[in-house]
TrEMBL record:
Residues 4-74 form the HTH merR-type domain. It comes from the Bacteria. Keywords: DNA-binding. It comes from Pseudonocardia humida. The keyword NADP does not apply. Gene3D superfamilies: 1.10.1660.10, Regulatory factor, effector binding domain (3.20.80.10). This is MerR family transcriptional regulator.
Length: 286
């Protein structure tokens, strides 16, 4: 392949690794000018040195590959400015989140007794009727799931003449630990009467588990809930309880009705039983 650069030469010229160049070819981001049908060797044009350098610079800024593709496809300054502006906004949010995490970590180091400042108590939960939508997803996609699920639930209740009788809620996992890459989650609404199912919308009639809950009130944004969860976990251990089912959250005040995250109020609840009482799994164990 005359007048073309081998993949190794392009790697030297752009400081992108050969492995990265092969991946970008597979993704259609930087396709060789020619590929030898007999050997499979890739040949790149001289102009692709510039494209490879652009990709390297953007990847060093953690710009997503799909956004890099937009820049390369358009080739105009306006698109580049738009993509980088969007990325700058994401990076600003990430920086704010990093600063918040660092602040939280410093507070944990400076104030190791912080967990005990959160009031944890027990309350009894009755087996009230609910309608719910459940799925399995990754932790990062939970906001998207809730944004879709709650409007469908409210519409279902209104369509069948029911009344929502409490704050919206959610249940997570099995109570035996959380897998952020595969978490079972249900969004639900407590209702005044049992309502029918809607399989097309994923709505299932159900009842809240009748159980004792260890609960604590979280004040503030959802991203800051680790101290509240930590306090409940400490209380469960100190009071010799066992967790008997999925963890719950009740959204007493929050979006969309309350826009200020500082004013959000969420009840964190763990279903528990005294350690001497057998759990449902233990009762059913042969």
């Amino acid at each position: 392949m005359r007048n073309l650069l081998s993949i190794g030469t392009l790697s030297n010229a752009s400081h992108l690794s050969v492995k990265a160049l092969r991946r970008y070819h597979e993704l259609g981001l930087l396709v060789p000018a020619a590929v030898d049908a007999r050997t499979g060797y890739r040949g790149y044009s001289v102009s692709q040195i510039t494209e490879a350098r652009i990709i390297r610079r953007l990847r060093r800024l953690d710009v997503p590959l799909e956004d890099i593709a937009r820049i390369l496809r358009s080739g105009d300054a306006g698109t580049t400015a738009q993509v980088l502006g969007e990325h700058r906004a994401r990076m600003k949010l990430r920086l704010e989140e990093t600063e918040r995490i660092v602040s939280d970590l410093q507070r944990l180091v400076d104030e190791p007794g912080e967990l005990h400042r959160v009031l944890v108590h027990e309350r009894w939960q009755r087996a009230e009727p609910i309608v719910r939508i459940g799925t399995r997803t990754v932790w990062a996609d939970l906001p998207e799931f809730f944004d879709a699920a709650y409007p469908r639930l409210f519409a279902h209740v209104a369509r069948h003449g029911g009344q929502v009788v409490g704050p919206s809620g959610a249940s997570y996992g099995s109570g035996q630990g959380i897998d952020h890459d595969d978490i079972a989650v249900s969004a639900w609404l407590a209702v005044d009467v049992a309502l029918p199912a809607d399989p097309a919308a994923g709505v299932v009639p159900d009842r809240l588990p009748e159980t004792r809950l260890a609960v604590a009130l979280h004040v503030g944004a959802f991203e800051d809930m680790s101290a509240t969860y930590g306090a409940v976990g400490a209380w469960v251990a100190e009071h010799d309880r066992v967790v008997t089912g999925p963890l719950q959250e009740l959204y007493l005040a929050g979006p969309p009705g309350v826009t200020d995250p500082d004013a959000w109020r969420t009840e964190v609840g763990w279903p528990v039983a005294p350690a001497e009482d057998p759990t449902p799994d233990e009762r059913n164990r042969p």
